[in-house]
Amino acid sequence: MLPDDDLSRSLTVADPDDPGTTYVSLVGNTYAMLVTGEQTNGRYCLIDMRVPDGGGPPPHRHDFEEMFTILEGEIEFTFRGEKHTVRAGSTINVPANAPHHFRNVSGAPARMLCMCTPAGQDEYFLRIGDVVEGKDAPPPRLSDEELAERRRRAAELASAYRSEFL
Fold first, then answer.
1. For 32-44, what is each residue's pLDDT tens digit?
2. Which of 59, 115, 116, 129 is at a distance of 20 to 30 A from 93, taking alpha carbons?
3. What string of DSSP letters covers the chain?
4. Radius of gyration, alpha carbons of the chain
5. Residue ranges for the chain with pLDDT beneath 50
């Protein structure tokens, strides 16, 4: 038997051009928080990732599922040490706990949707990145000390968000 409808939850419409969308600059990428864990009772989050040519995170792993749908460009995913080139229109799923990272190899900006289940990655990004004005806003110019602080904070908070850098 299904539980009753939870009337405290509302319909969510995710529009990256909505003025209320929060954008975060992180490692040179710009991430739009389209659907947050707060909106889904922690079930998942959806992030619109804009990745400049050559951009991407360092090798890492986490204990939650991560699915990427490539919307524009070409992304090279390294999964358990093996490289896979994924082009616009394709979707991949990275299983929980698997070491991975990605790099934009398209020679132009790339864009993809990232769904994490359960949610939490959205909160982590907000805590370690810098909020910017919009999808086309340049990343902030950070001093060496500020960059070191961002790295320290990312490493310090990683375990609280069930992640580890490799």
1. 999 999 999 999 9
2. 129
3. -PPPP-TT-------TTSTT-EEEEETTEEEEEEE-TTTTTTS-EEEEEEE-TT--PPSEEESSEEEEEEEESEEEEEETTEEEEEETT-EEEE-TT--EEEEE-SSS-EEEEEEEESS-HHHHHHHHSEEESSTTPPPP---HHHHHHHHHHHHHHHGGGTEEE-
4. 16
5. none
